[in-house]
UniProtKB/TrEMBL annotation:
Membrane-spanning segments: 23-50, 62-85, 91-113
UniProt organism field: Aspergillus kawachii (White koji mold)
Keywords for the protein's UniProt record, in alphabetical order: Membrane, Transmembrane, Transmembrane helix
Subcellular localization, as worded in the UniProt entry: Membrane
Major localisation: membrane
Topology relative to the membrane: Multi-pass membrane protein
MF terms in GO: transmembrane transporter activity
Gene Ontology CC: one annotated term: plasma membrane
Protein name from the UniProt record: Uncharacterized protein
């Protein structure tokens, strides 16, 4: 997860500013592959973390993990088209890259302070 988290904003900024007609389409395709690596790494690691942290209540914790993802997916499906057409591909991907750059630190927080965070939850399993 730690290697995939920075790959997401890097690939979004890469895609945002290489989608010009005078730049080869392969640049955006490679950036999309890096984005896919980052998203897959973060999602799989987050799912495994939740399953390991909440052994007995893993199903409920997993539902709380994926529900915001699906709600955001449904919302961005409706809002994505108008956003892209109103401010353009470059700025839309730059905004998403900035949001993901801020969120890229979250896996590091869980990696270094996860055991402290799990101690606060009465349902989490803490392995000392």
């Amino acid at each position: 997860m730690l290697g995939g988290a920075p790959a997401i904003p890097i690939s979004l900024f890469w895609m945002a500013w290489t989608t010009y007609r005078h730049i080869s389409v392969w640049s955006s395709i490679i950036a999309s592959a890096v984005f896919g690596f980052g998203i897959t790494t973060v999602f799989i690691s987050a799912h495994l973390y939740v399953i390991d942290a909440y052994e007995k209540g893993a199903a409920s914790a997993f539902a709380m993990l994926v529900m915001p993802r699906y709600l955001a997916s449904g919302g961005i499906t409706v809002a994505g088209g108008p956003i892209y057409s109103s401010i353009g591909v470059h700025y839309t991907l730059s905004i998403l890259g900035a949001i993901s750059a801020v969120m890229a630190f979250v896996p590091y927080v869980f990696y270094f302070y996860g055991h402290h965070i799990r101690r606060v939850s009465p349902h989490a399993v803490v392995h000392d």
